[in-house]
Amino acid sequence: MAELAERTRRFVSEQVFPIEREIVVDGRPMTDALRLELQKMAKDAGVFGPLSPVSYGGLGLDTRAQAPVLEAAGTSLIGPLALNCWAPDDGNIHLLAHAATPEQAERYLRPLASGEVRSAIAMTEPAPGTGSDPSMLRTVAEEVTDGWIINGDKHFTTGADGAAFFVCIARTEDGPTMFLVDQDNPGVTVGRRMPTLDHTSAPGGHCEVRFENCVVPDEAVLGAVGQGLEYAQVRLAPSRLTFCMNWLGLATRAQELTARHIQRRESFGARIADHGMAQGQLADNEIDIEASRALIHRAAVAIDTEGAASSSARHLASVAKTFVAEAVWRVLDRAVQLHGGLGVCEDHLVARFLVEARAFRIYEGPSEVLRWSIARRVLRNYR
Amino acid sequence: MAELAERTRRFVSEQVFPIEREIVVDGRPMTDALRLELQKMAKDAGVFGPLSPVSYGGLGLDTRAQAPVLEAAGTSLIGPLALNCWAPDDGNIHLLAHAATPEQAERYLRPLASGEVRSAIAMTEPAPGTGSDPSMLRTVAEEVTDGWIINGDKHFTTGADGAAFFVCIARTEDGPTMFLVDQDNPGVTVGRRMPTLDHTSAPGGHCEVRFENCVVPDEAVLGAVGQGLEYAQVRLAPSRLTFCMNWLGLATRAQELTARHIQRRESFGARIADHGMAQGQLADNEIDIEASRALIHRAAVAIDTEGAASSSARHLASVAKTFVAEAVWRVLDRAVQLHGGLGVCEDHLVARFLVEARAFRIYEGPSEVLRWSIARRVLRNYR
Amino acid sequence: MAELAERTRRFVSEQVFPIEREIVVDGRPMTDALRLELQKMAKDAGVFGPLSPVSYGGLGLDTRAQAPVLEAAGTSLIGPLALNCWAPDDGNIHLLAHAATPEQAERYLRPLASGEVRSAIAMTEPAPGTGSDPSMLRTVAEEVTDGWIINGDKHFTTGADGAAFFVCIARTEDGPTMFLVDQDNPGVTVGRRMPTLDHTSAPGGHCEVRFENCVVPDEAVLGAVGQGLEYAQVRLAPSRLTFCMNWLGLATRAQELTARHIQRRESFGARIADHGMAQGQLADNEIDIEASRALIHRAAVAIDTEGAASSSARHLASVAKTFVAEAVWRVLDRAVQLHGGLGVCEDHLVARFLVEARAFRIYEGPSEVLRWSIARRVLRNYR
Amino acid sequence: MAELAERTRRFVSEQVFPIEREIVVDGRPMTDALRLELQKMAKDAGVFGPLSPVSYGGLGLDTRAQAPVLEAAGTSLIGPLALNCWAPDDGNIHLLAHAATPEQAERYLRPLASGEVRSAIAMTEPAPGTGSDPSMLRTVAEEVTDGWIINGDKHFTTGADGAAFFVCIARTEDGPTMFLVDQDNPGVTVGRRMPTLDHTSAPGGHCEVRFENCVVPDEAVLGAVGQGLEYAQVRLAPSRLTFCMNWLGLATRAQELTARHIQRRESFGARIADHGMAQGQLADNEIDIEASRALIHRAAVAIDTEGAASSSARHLASVAKTFVAEAVWRVLDRAVQLHGGLGVCEDHLVARFLVEARAFRIYEGPSEVLRWSIARRVLRNYR
Fold this sequence. Notes:
The structure is a homotetramer.
Chain A: H1 2-26, H2 32-44, H3 63-73, H4 79-83, H5 89-99, H6 102-114, E1 119-122, E2 140-144, E3 147-158, E4 165-172, E5 175-182, E6 188-193, E7 206-217, E8 221-222, H7 228-264, E9 266-267, E10 270-271, H8 276-306, H9 311-338, H10 349-357, H11 367-381
Parallel strand pairs in A: 1-4
Antiparallel strand pairs in A: 2-3, 3-7, 4-5, 5-8, 6-7, 9-10
Helix pairs in contact in A: 1-3, 3-7, 5-6, 5-7, 7-8, 7-9, 7-10, 8-9, 9-10, 9-11
Domain Acyl-CoA dehydrogenase/oxidase C-terminal (chains A, B, C, D): 226-379
Domain Acyl-CoA dehydrogenase/oxidase N-terminal (chains A, B, C, D): 3-116
Cofactor (chains A, B, C, D): FAD
């Protein structure tokens, strides 16, 4: 496993960094063609598909083994795309592997796992629909002969632009239910890409999507009717951890760039690296990075040994997501600060990293909502 | 004075906010034509020129009186431009009012104070030149018959693109010296705009500028030869405070937007405004805002009563700059967080504010350099 | 005023510091005899009674003028006692000056202002009585012929041990009401001193007090019946600020001790004062101190110009109390850290200061309750 | 192992908590007799000696296995004493097991591991001697016929009062060297106990100790002459981790006490546990606790697999010590705050815990010195 992580690290730094530089410095657009090119390179390097089942062409790593590999992938903003372990496809692969029928798996999981297609996840809705609170879900699926009609507005639909299919959650009489909806269904309209700060790393954007009299057959139901939130939970803990692993990689990259930068630059009679305040920030970064890595490992062990839906896995994944999202933000912010004026130039990686990472504290559960759920669990334990 | 601040607040919210929205939401470019249009509106509203001497068409406010007016101006990213109290022109107006000969004042200060032209400040240099450490200055001015020849590379030259003239600092045999260099001097080349994160608020950008055998007459010397750093000091404390006032305004705007947003949105059975964690963040913002306002006032009193170059004014301006830059950043970051997903959309003001504000902790003295100088003063006091 | 503050600073450092050292190092007990000795010294130095009305022998300073004087007093843990500007007498003096009848003023305010006697404030109750929430008040006063009978349990009754009288708040049919109860009233029992962390600075401790069939005459009512909470509000903003001023003084003392200590001690080849991380902490202390001073001044101006019960005075006093209590704590904590092992020895002042100061974030309104009230005001402003 | 941790947890809560309460509430003194009583109870419960080698009557756990057991022990201030895994004996046991000759082991390690005697570690010296910087060591050992003469002053000699022997580090011609010095050596004088804040948990205190013409035989040398710092390093990483495990236990206890307290108390119309700001603090505590636990585990794995003196073990132990010391402090501080007024009463555990824990950020390496060493390692990695 250490070997695979090392190989990934080498692959990303040798083959992905140059392309990342073209994107960040020269403005090369992140297209699906480029994504396929990157994935081809990852396949050739033998590092493609760390999250995907072996039977679908992936490496089939357990969560613990994923951690160092995804951290290595994450050292570049586009490394996780190259390895096919980036949102929302990572979570959808996990979800389909868990809940899809054999027919659904052939049709949706296989091309997704191979990188042939991309997918989207349609959960969040504009106000007064569901944001962090699943009870506010307003998109409705009405049962009709041989199928369902879905109506509702979504936004922040990650990956929607160019996705081959959507995982859409909608209310039914029996409760929230997940549906697989093909991109060419005439009832789906992908609206504008929302101008989110994380534009580099998401080829399909975060889009507004409308489901309008969208008819799907019974076979479009993913898992059991009325169990949509349970499936969302299955998806959630691993998907939060994947995020953590990828973003932690970016923090380690920023730390390396910073450590090198401050050993080259001088001011006030010494290298910046010799100034105590800079050393303090570098050490704070290191502490944040090691604590993140340690928490990810703990949560990964819980997922692997007790299951992704277990109480302890969910708790530790919440704790890890909250801590890592904030720790990565602090690391990137200090990296910018230690780069001085260059740190706020968008053609320097650290500036771009900072801007891209801001949403990580909000997506997949804002820190406040996670803290609330963490607190409730503590209170229950000590009632 | 309270009346002027109130008038400014009304002017900005009624007339500037709509234009700011066009820039942020629709991508309307910030041009000099737009700047002149904004300044015309500010003149009509009687709020133009709070920093400029009365004899040059300004309002001639002392520093204390500037604080609420500039805070009101700063509630929009482009409000300070409208009032002509934005970097680098604010500092250059102050510097010229202090150090220019009558001829220099007529030629440079008058059109600058009226908004007819913009200016630039050419201090920072690429490595291994001067960044925060003035002793590393590498641009050289050599005395020749009737004048000087300037050679050197600058970067982060704020306002350079389209500036009518440059305040350039260069080493001479007698020490660092300031020069006024016309834009059309054939020895000056304005290179690329550096892609800094603060692109909305700076019409002239932060540019690379080359002075190559740039010949200027003796009359181009601003103040006394060899006294360039002393003049830079004169400019520094007021210019740091101006920054603080303007950016504090932006923080108050973000606070208002946030307070309104969380009273409209609901989740988990209550308005976001009713959740204690949101209230805690709102209160932290308020505390940061009030402490910033209080520190700005204290530093302003020191400047007005003891002079901008006095030890106490410089100390308090350093303290205020360090605190306010970090406090504003915290306020904007919490505002983004409380806006949830919308907070990271670039067509929402708070996302844009956050990105624009990052450089404030670096420009005009990075927090670390300021902390170092604050600590040295404390140590001297208690030797 | 600056002269008075300077005189106070000199008085405290020359005359009070040696006695403080005996208390902290040698364990000399803080008795009423010692308090009277200290107050005699303060009277001789012309600095006694900064908060008391001139007609009652005090200096009659307005809030703004109090700030530097009380900060100077606060440089010693027992300086405020010497000047008679320490809780709970400071607040009771203020309250009596505001609400007492002439007879009550002669009987209670005069000896209190002169330092002849001490007083106590009996508000807080054990669960399920009132803590921070005044609506939970359980002590009851029942009207009888010519007077009242008070029944209830209080705790954290500051100053109770040895107090000449109590200001006691109790529920009546017409609402919460304040009563003046003599120490020798047979219906009052002072129980144990609660073993709070702040044992040096409080001669009367924080005690459990029982009112059991405690009969008081009509003249014992302070102010109007049913207006007890309004009077508590009158007392609150000034009393919070007095606290802030006193504790800020302690922070400045710790900063001085630290700055001197780290210039004497060496490690790793340099004075501790030359290490950047130490400088960073010293600068953070200075920023916290200056921001505290600035906020206190702003709140003092609001009290002096708009009244202690005005909305803006209460808001700014809440903001100041929250910030200053936390800032002082941070300053003292950094001072301990920079003293190394010596910093955790109780015979060193900084260790003692840290322990004494902990309650400041809880007394007179815990930070969380204050944040809640600050947030509500912000929300009201932007409804 | 989980069973042993659970057994320890039960032992401590059922048998140690009541005695701890007598100490904290009633002021029962912590004597050696009490220590022996506690250790007898731990032996009966089968949980004594988690750090000691099996051949010396201990449980012989590896570092990973120690973590949950010591965390359970640490839920009481005196739990680690009961199990014999508390400073300085824990580190001395580790050191002797590593470096003692068979004769030394019989004479010193055996009675120490069994709890029959206590020991002390004499490293730190008063200024200008060694504090955090080992190069400043001033205590000298001069070689004479058949032995050595030690001269020097130590302070903060943990455990000295009542210790059977001292591990003393002194300079020799060949470099720093460790010596085993019996308590009854006439050349040793134990001076005053330093009045440190952590008085509950240390039966032997932190003392001033003088070595004056202290003659010891050659057999008193521990390990090789001139290798004292290397042995100190061997002791250091495990001893830092032991500290972390024990103190983390205290943090978990405070968290439990807090969670229970805020579910019992009401204010402002709800249980404190229902207020969002309280939930946020509880969640922050949980995150700090889980991150501490995760970092301890990572460092323990490094010690067990790569050795206590390996670069990665030392690095991770430094990171863990820095983070955990600060995290525990934050947890205890929030626990105090959530207890309100009761939180600052010394007869409540959380107040006592906070005061006891302050030194943890200084002993065994102040956070600043650790950050410096962490930063240097980062810089070396990315040169």
